[in-house]
TrEMBL record:
<dbReference type="Pfam" id="PF09347">
    <property type="entry name" value="DUF1989"/>
</dbReference>
<protein>
    <submittedName>
        <fullName>DUF1989 domain-containing protein</fullName>
    </submittedName>
</protein>
<feature type="domain" description="DUF1989">
    <location>
        <begin position="48"/>
        <end position="227"/>
    </location>
</feature>
<dbReference type="InterPro" id="IPR018959">
    <property type="entry name" value="DUF1989"/>
</dbReference>
Amino acid sequence: MTDIPADAETRRAVAPVICYPNDTLPKVDLALYRGAREGARKVDEVLVPPREAMAFRVAAGQFFRVSSVEGPQVGDLNLWNAHDLSERFYSGKTRALHGTHLSTGERMWSAFPFLRPMATITEDTLGWYGIDGYGGSVHDVIGTRCDPYTHNLLSGGQYHHCCHSNLTRALADATGMTLAEAEPHVHDVLNVFMCTGFTRDTGQYFMKASPVRPGDYLEFFAEIDLLGALSACPGGDCSSEHSSDEAACYPLLVEVFAPEEGALQGWSQPGTNGYDRTHGR
């Protein structure tokens, strides 16, 4: 059964089928969001130091922006329901619904059993990049986050400023939990500004120098009350390596904006998923 069959090329030539046609997803009213953003005022900001993470809070109906401010830098973003940490960003289902990389008009969806929009991308200054000749693009939901466990597995080292550890410390600081309590809540990320893809020959996950420039940003609309944490990855622009202090790293800026009263007329927070959860019993 391991021999190449006579009809191998015919089997390879079968056309693909999209697993989750997404034309029935709730429509994104970008015009409403952008109109509300025009008169919004900044109510908070957090500067994330290089090789560290910081937490921030955004109320439902507000906007938050992640910006490159000094040099090319990628960031690992976690989102939780501010009132229930069990509702958190689900990168795998987001990838299944939208694709491997996110941009304007696409959403960060929450985990089961909630499965609702947590945040909607409203602006992306790197939207011009598209998909390059290597199959790379920006803002991926395929990488999990750099972590000290994989680093130890591959090199035997003890590195404490991987994004997983950074996010764990940030969540612990924001909630008063111990590190041991906080760590299980840290989850797969949106890799903001990171340029990634899969090699065509071996199917391996790759990274390459991010095209991000100081002044570039990714902006979101908070669909529910959010607790977020952002790590300024030790890989810098991810052009060479991560999980070390070798790469040049720069801070990232998170800003929160509140629209004027009445600017979101007709908008309401999305409810949790409508499945009845009986699972056939």
